[in-house]
């Protein structure tokens, strides 16, 4: 592949290295395809349009699809992460065009432009939505902020296209709630050169229009499902109206959320002022009774009171570890689960990247794709349980007065809590809360009194964002001598339903962000899954990913029982 030495370094607000790298690789690939002779012609020379379109459909686009899919994945991560930093509640989705959609679009666009395609660059410039990202904001009030983010973060190829709700919708019914509304941005990554620069579309819409468009798009705009009667159009308009009600209800509860939060802050300030005025004897007056119990027992600032208030289960991680480690068996020398690959266990725990992760005395994080058994007791989970068990033992017996650094292990095994209908721990909120309370429990001798009080004041145990933010804040406040190891195992099991997946994604992104900021405490982060978690790969450097191949050399542990031994951490 030829290099684009003249192409400047691409720039991003927030600096997503992975996205820039993938974008440049795709840019170089497009450049090569544009200048490589194919048959008796070059793409940058004039030749029959039909030959170009046929070649694009049959050869060029299939060759580019994996690169465009990688671009879309990184764009989704980048947009989601940056919008989250800006406090914008939204969903971010992405897609590449299907082969059939590409064929149909090329035919339609060539007819619309009324002249044939003569160069590959013509097609790639005209097909601005080969890669597409959709940002779905919670309400119309957030649209301008989302549009502003897109304008600031990417280079505009042309002015955004506003699809107005005043457009006519159907043939028979004058829609009361209008048409689908969105703002479509045709953009590329920032840089001084546009040479072979891939163009993609970022669409901004509201939640109500997103819901409505799930039905309107295939019926009205694509015509995939046949014609609509006047009654059908009325029902479609009613769906749009119902989505308005959902949005209005959401906006109402956002207002109520702010009112409750402001009320609690005001009440807290009044209580503090009254306490100072009346002196310590009246600090436990009846005014405390007006507080929400989860929130605001201001006088309770001990570790014990926090753990009690939030119903901390100090045996949860130990029990989960024991359930997984039972696979080793007690009296046999073989794993008791026939689906577990002993060679894969040894390959994981002896891999130089895992060894480096828990042996070097500096911050490190690792994404482990075990590529093995897909059950909750996988090879990756077995290794995670062994590491967690060894760390818990080390923590239990370390001399906190003489030993430095102080080892504080935090762990959560998603595969042991996958049933969100029956298991009270099967949510991203409980995952974050468990990590927070483990940190409060095991780091109790080194957490400031002010941090404990803030946790009581801020954390709502059923509200994910308050728990996630408090966990990240506490990590950043820990002293230099602390050595915090976080193990989150079995991420794949929290990929459904959508709400749990989105909250889990937000937690992982937040923890990685804390890691990249470099807190005083030494932070080690291990994320594992029995199968590939491509969603997070763009947030890791290549040497921070351990991805085992599906097929391993056989016979590696035929007479080797090291995979069964406890891990020794030094």
How would you explain this protein's 3D organization?
47% of the residues lie in helices and 12% in strands. Strands 3, 4, 5, 6, 7 and 8 form a six-stranded mixed β-sheet that branches. The model is unreliable at 1-11, 39-47, 279-300, 330-338 and 555-563 (pLDDT under 50). It is globular, with a radius of gyration of 28 Å. It has helices spanning 17-35, 49-85, 99-113, 120-126, 143-153, 207-221, 230-278, 303-309, 316-325, 342-349, 352-359, 379-397, 428-442, 449-458, 464-477, 498-517, 534-537; strands spanning 37-38, 41-42, 90-96, 131-137, 155-156, 161-163, 182-188, 200-206, 364-369, 406-413, 482-489, 522-529, 545-547. Among the domains are: 17-234, Beta Polymerase, domain 2; 310-329 and 364-444 and 479-550, Rossmann fold (3-Layer(aba) Sandwich), CATH 3.40.50.
Share of residues in helices: 40-55%
Total helical segments: 17
Number of strands: 13
Shape: globular
Structural class: alpha/beta
Q: Mean of the pLDDT scores?
A: 78
Distance between the termini: 44 Å
Beta-strand share of residues: 5-15%
The CATH H-level superfamily of one domain is Beta Polymerase, domain 2
- What would CATH call the architecture of one domain? 2-Layer Sandwich
The largest pleated sheet is described as: 6 strands, mixed
Within the CATH hierarchy, at the fold level, what is the topology of one domain?
Answer: Beta Polymerase, domain 2
């Amino acid at each position: 592949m030829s290099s684009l030495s003249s192409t400047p370094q691409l720039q991003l607000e927030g600096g997503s290295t992975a996205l820039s790298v993938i974008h440049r690789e795709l840019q170089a690939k497009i450049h090569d395809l544009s200048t490589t002779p194919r048959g008796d012609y070059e793409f940058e020379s004039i030749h029959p349009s039909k030959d170009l379109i046929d070649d694009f459909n049959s050869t060029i686009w299939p060759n580019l699809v994996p690169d465009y899919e990688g671009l879309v994945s990184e764009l989704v991560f980048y947009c989601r992460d940056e919008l989250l930093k800006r406090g914008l509640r939204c969903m971010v989705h992405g897609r590449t065009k299907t082969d059939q959609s590409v064929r149909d679009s090329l035919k339609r666009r060539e007819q619309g432009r009324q002249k044939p395609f003569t160069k590959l660059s013509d097609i790639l410039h005209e097909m601005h939505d080969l890669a597409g990202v959709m940002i779905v904001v919670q309400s119309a009030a957030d649209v301008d902020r989302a549009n502003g983010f897109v304008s600031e973060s990417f280079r505009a190829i042309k002015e955004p296209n506003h699809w107005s709700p005043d457009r006519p919708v159907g043939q028979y019914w004058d829609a009361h709630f209008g048409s689908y509304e969105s703002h479509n941005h045709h953009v590329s990554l920032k840089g001084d050169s546009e040479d072979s620069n891939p163009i993609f579309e970022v669409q901004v819409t509201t939640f109500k229009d997103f819901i409505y468009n799930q039905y309107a798009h295939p019926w009205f705009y694509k015509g995939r499902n046949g014609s609509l009667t006047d009654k059908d159009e009325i029902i479609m308009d009613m769906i749009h109206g119902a989505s308005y009600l959902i949005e209005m209800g959401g906006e109402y509860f956002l207002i109520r959320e702010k009112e409750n939060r402001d009320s609690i802050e005001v009440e807290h300030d009044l209580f503090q002022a009254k306490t100072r005025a009346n002196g310590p004897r009246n600090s436990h007056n009846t005014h405390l009774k007006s507080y929400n119990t989860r929130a605001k027992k201001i006088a309770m600032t001990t570790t014990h009171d926090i753990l009690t208030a939030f119903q901390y289960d100090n045996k949860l991680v130990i029990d989960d570890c024991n359930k997984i480690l039972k696979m080793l068996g007690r009296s046999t020398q073989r794993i008791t689960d026939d689906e577990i690959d002993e060679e894969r266990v040894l390959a994981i725990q002896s891999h130089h990247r895992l060894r480096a992760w828990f042996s070097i005395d500096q911050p490190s994080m690792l994404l482990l794709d075990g590529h093995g058994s897909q059950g909750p007791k996988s090879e990756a989970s077995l290794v995670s349980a062994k590491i967690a068990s060894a760390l818990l033992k080390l923590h239990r017996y370390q001399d906190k007065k003489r030993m430095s650094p102080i080892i504080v292990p935090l762990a959560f095994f998603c595969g042991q809590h996958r049933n969100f209908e029956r298991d009270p721990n099967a949510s991203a909120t409980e995952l974050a809360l468990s990590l927070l309370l483990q940190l409060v429990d095991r780091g109790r001798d080194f957490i400031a009194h002010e941090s404990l009080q803030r946790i009581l004041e801020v954390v709502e145990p059923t509200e994910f964002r308050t728990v996630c933010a408090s966990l990240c804040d506490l990590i950043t406040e820990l002293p230099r001598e602390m050595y915090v190891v976080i193990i989150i195992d079995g991420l794949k099991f929290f990929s459904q339903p959508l709400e749990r997946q989105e909250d889990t994604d937000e937690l992982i992104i937040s923890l990685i962000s804390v890691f990249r900021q470099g807190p005083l405490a030494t932070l080690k982060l291990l994320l594992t899954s029995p199968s590939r978690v491509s969603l997070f790969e763009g947030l890791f450097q290549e040497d921070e990913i351990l991805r085992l191949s599906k097929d391993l050399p056989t016979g590696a542990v035929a007479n080797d029982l090291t995979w069964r031994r406890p891990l020794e951490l030094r």
